[in-house]
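Quick one: DUF4148 domain-containing protein from Frigidibacter albus, structure tokens please.
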Amino acid sequence: MKNLILASAALVAIAGSASASGQGYQPNKLSNVDAAELNIYVPNVNVDQLTPAQVQSVESALYGDDKGKVAALRAAVR
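--- reply ---
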């Protein structure tokens, strides 16, 4: 019981710190990690101007198989 309470408190603290820092889930926007990885493969991309369809394509390319990843990312941001 004590462990359950401690685990619940930890989850609340983590969720609170993520939302307070503005790093919570934002639909139709790439996470900072995904944006950084995209910039590795396709430099000089303005991730703030990607459309929701482009964001979805980029995420699919990043989390799909590695075959043709760079080509898929370049095609997604054009």
